[in-house]
Structures are given as C-alpha cells and as structure tokens.
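Hi all, posting the design record for the shared folder.

TITLE: backbone redesign
STEP: 1 of 1
STRUCTURE INPUT:
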C-alpha cells in the first residue's frame, strides 16, 4: 500500500534549542509553546495557520543527488560535516514530488458547493473537529448529535445555535442534505457509525482508533470501497509538515539503514488514578443504553462513561477501547509504518500490567510492546508512574539508523548524526538539525479531507491506512491479554500463531439489535 509523499518548504527547517515542557493530558509532557497555543480544551488558534506549508515555493537550488557519496567512497558520512552541510543535505533529501492517489467514483458536491456536515458525538474531540470544520469557508454544520444532553448543548452552542440537534445518530444519517458525517464517539461505536454513514450516502471523517477489533476495521474498509466514499481517519499527524519531512528523511535513507525504532508516551499520574466510583443509575440527561450500543449491557459507572473535566475515561475499559496502546499508540505507530513503508508487523510480544494505579481501569498502566517487521523492530512503551525520558519529553518517536538518529514529536523534529571512526579516530558529529515550526495539522487534515470530498481522491489518512495502523495497536493488546507471542500474516490479515483466546479477540459479539454488516 503506497502513501502519498510531499514537498516541504526548507524555510521551516531551523536550528533551535531544547523546548521547555509542561504537564499536559494525564501527565504527558508537552511543549509550553504548543500548550500556550491551545485553549483549555486543546483547540488550536489562528496563529498556527501562518506556518502552513506552501510546497510550490520550495526550490532547494541543489541537484537531487548532490549529497550522495562519490565513487570510491564507502560511506557518505565518513568525513566530518558542518552544521550547514548537514541541513543542506537534509533539505535536498526531502525535495520529492507528490504521488497521485487513485480516485473514487465521481459523485457528491461540486467544487464550489457548500459541504453540509453532521457531527455525531460532541464531546471534547467532537467539538474540536466541529470547530476545525466550521472554520472552513465551504462548510455548513447542519446537525449535531449526542446521547448526553450537556454535550449536545455544547455542540449547539459551537454552531451559534444554527444546527439542528439529535440524540439518535440514525436521524442525522437519514437527512439527504448532509454530505459528510463526523464520527467522534467512543471507540466501540466507530465501526457501526462509519459503515452506516457510508450506507446512507455520506463521506466520513472518523476519529482514531477506528475500531476495537481487527474485524471491525476490515469491515470499515470494505464499506468505504463498496459504497465509493471518502473516509478520512483523524490521525492528523500525517498532515503535519514536519512529520512529512521527517518521514521523507527516513524513506530517502538520510539516516542510513534503520533497524530499530522506539516509540513511547509516559505520564506521572497520582496513585489513585481515575478512582473507584461504584456503579449507580445513569444521569437523567444521558441515554445510557444508546451510549452502550453494541457493547454488553452493564450498570452505569462514572468511569465507564467517563465524561468530565479530564479526557474521557471510557478508553481504559476493554468493552469500549484499548487503553493507551490504541489511543496514543496509533498516532506513533502510524508515523512509523508510513516512514518504513510497511503495513504491519509479522510478530508481536507484549509485557505489562497494572503495577501502579489503584483505580478501576482495566487497561495496563505499564506496558512494553515489541513489534517485529521485516528488517527492523519497533518498541512501544507506556507508563504512568514516571514521566521522565531521555529527551525529557513525554512522548515521541526515535528512528535509529546507521548514519543518524531522528526524533520527532508534535513540536518538531531533531536529527543527530551518528559518530563514525575513521582510521581509529572518532569523528564527533554534534550538529543537531531541528525543525521548529509546526503547522495546524488538525485544520489542514480537515482541509485535505474536504478537498478529497470534492475531488473524489483518497485522503492522506484513508480508512485503509487508519485500519492498518489501528490493527498494529490492537495486536499489541491481543498479545498483552493472552500473554502469547502473536505472529501475523500482514497481507491476508490472518493470525498465523496464537491460541483460541487470541482468535476470539480479533472480533467481538454485538449486543442485539446491533449487527456488523456491510
């Protein structure tokens, strides 16, 4: 599966010092600059838009292969290089043209028409998506939907009272005037909402992770293709210009052969975690049965529902989500698989447990996963007892190559050349190349989707890509829950090695009357 590639302006590539960091969501360290540019609910501000890339303006002025070794040299980095040389070579390395994406059948809105949108789920992510869509000049938010009245009122307020409100998403999908459905509901609803939206004739913007099982993901891809709809996944890092440039550096071999990749997100949560509330009756302004939907019927618990000042805690219960392995892991592993041009691992081993937090969450608070790919391995680490890391950053990706190490997170990237010994003399390359400016990837991700709604092209985070990234994370959880080493056939998406318990976790039963059908 090929992904599009991009040309990124060199003016975004600068040298800078280390960013200062502050505590963010559940203890994760985030750059203070990014924190200042976000509102209390994580929304972006207008200032970030000035950083958006104008790829057509980029002309490095250097021949495409000028940095490659000349004949007779065994190693292109066997001689000491200057800071300017290092940056120049990296800039040239990313000067590639875009790759066309196979189009879908031509239907839907015209190039100059308004795109009419219905928002299903107006919690924190739903409101964030609503705001990014509403700021686009060719969008009309016509409907907002949520089973929880306070969320519904927030959605209505975000549209200045103009949208019609619904508690049942099926009424939104029944509207013939709506072109696009935004799906920002709890994870266990993503598959059904997306499939039913495609069947109702809507293009879809669905939040990540796209599914809670691998079968759901396959069915979502099937629905998008069967009904010829554009489906974009909310892995917005793919629309970040610095992520695009970092990916190209890896793909172009600038840091040499990559045999090891490390990903992580850490936090320093209080021992009581999310607490231990007892089961109770649901609030009068919540349709608990519809919130559960295809998930098992259980008593209401505040943490299972999870709405409050914090990010929703439903993500820590297996009936609805997959913990941070799927919630954050999908962002990180999506970039890894893009950069390394792979669709998934062939083997997965996971170790972890609840070693620290004293709450009623079901997912682990400490996790280490090893994904084996052809030619390299990738690790994912998550912990909530300690947020310290080598870079003093709460999350990130490190690509370790024979010629250098590339670190990337949402604040930019850093590239550190590897030391080499030449005739028993160590050549110390301490120059650090960094990309400090970031665009508003959320806003640009939405724009990419809307453009594809009109052009009928596949978007940058097409449902197939989102499915593959989510599947990798789901396999990590399967290995954790079964305590088995999982081997996987990436092409056929079938389990090669794993017991009956592992096979059961690849799909799930739906509570009647809900059915997973395409």
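Okay, here is what came back for every position:
SEQUENCE:
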């Amino acid at each position: 599966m090929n992904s599009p590639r991009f040309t990124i302006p060199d003016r975004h590539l600068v040298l800078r010092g280390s960013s200062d960091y502050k505590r963010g969501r559940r203890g994760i360290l985030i750059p203070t600059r990014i924190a200042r540019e976000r509102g209390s609910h994580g929304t972006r501000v207008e200032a970030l838009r000035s950083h958006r890339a104008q790829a057509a303006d980029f002309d490095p002025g250097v021949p495409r292969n000028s940095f490659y070794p000349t004949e007779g040299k065994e190693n292109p980095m066997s001689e000491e290089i200057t800071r300017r040389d290092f940056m120049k070579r990296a800039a040239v390395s990313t000067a590639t043209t875009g790759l066309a994406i196979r189009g879908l059948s031509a239907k839907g809105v015209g190039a100059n028409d308004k795109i009419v949108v219905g928002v299903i789920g107006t919690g924190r992510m739903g409101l964030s998506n609503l705001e990014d869509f509403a700021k686009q000049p060719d969008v009309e938010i016509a409907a907002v939907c949520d089973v929880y009245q306070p969320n519904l009122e927030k959605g209505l307020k975000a549209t200045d009272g103009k949208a019609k409100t619904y508690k049942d998403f099926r009424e939104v999908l029944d509207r013939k005037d709506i072109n696009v459905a935004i799906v920002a509901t709890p994870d266990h609803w993503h598959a059904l909402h997306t499939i039913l939206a495609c069947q109702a004739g809507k293009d879809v913007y669905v939040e990540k992770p796209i599914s809670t099982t691998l079968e759901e993901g396959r069915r979502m891809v099937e629905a998008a293709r069967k009904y010829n709809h554009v489906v974009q996944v909310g892995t917005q890092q793919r629309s970040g210009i610095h992520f695009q440039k970092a990916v190209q550096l890896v793909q172009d071999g600038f840091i040499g052969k990559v045999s090891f990749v490390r990903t992580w997100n850490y936090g320093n949560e209080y021992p009581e975690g999310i607490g231990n509330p007892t089961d109770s009756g649901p609030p009068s302004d919540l349709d608990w049965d519809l919130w559960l939907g295809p998930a098992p019927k259980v008593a209401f618990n505040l943490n299972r529902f999870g709405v409050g000042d914090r990010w929703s805690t439903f993500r820590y219960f297996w009936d609805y989500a997959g913990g941070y392995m799927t919630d954050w892991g999908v962002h990180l592993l999506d970039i890894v698989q893009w950069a390394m041009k792979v669709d998934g691992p062939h083997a997965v081993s996971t170790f972890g447990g609840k070693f620290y937090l004293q709450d009623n969450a079901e997912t682990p608070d400490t996790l280490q996963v090893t994904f084996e790919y052809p030619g390299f391995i990738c690790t994912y680490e998550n912990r909530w007892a300690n947020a310290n890391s080598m870079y003093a950053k709460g999350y990130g990706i490190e690509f370790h190559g024979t010629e250098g190490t590339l670190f990337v997170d949402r604040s930019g990237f850093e590239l550190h050349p590897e030391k080499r010994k030449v005739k028993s003399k160590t050549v110390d390359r301490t120059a650090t190349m960094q990309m400090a400016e970031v665009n508003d990837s959320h806003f640009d991700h939405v724009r990419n989707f809307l453009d594809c709604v009109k052009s009928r092209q596949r978007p940058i985070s097409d449902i197939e890509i989102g499915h593959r990234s989510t599947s990798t994370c789901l396999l990590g959880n399967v290995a954790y829950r079964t305590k088995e080493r999982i081997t996987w056939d990436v092409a056929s998406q079938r389990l090669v090695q794993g017991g009956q318990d592992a096979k059961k976790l690849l799909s799930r039963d739906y509570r009647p009357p809900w059915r997973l059908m395409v």
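COMMENT: The first strand starts at residue 21 and ends at 23.
Let me know if anyone wants the other runs.
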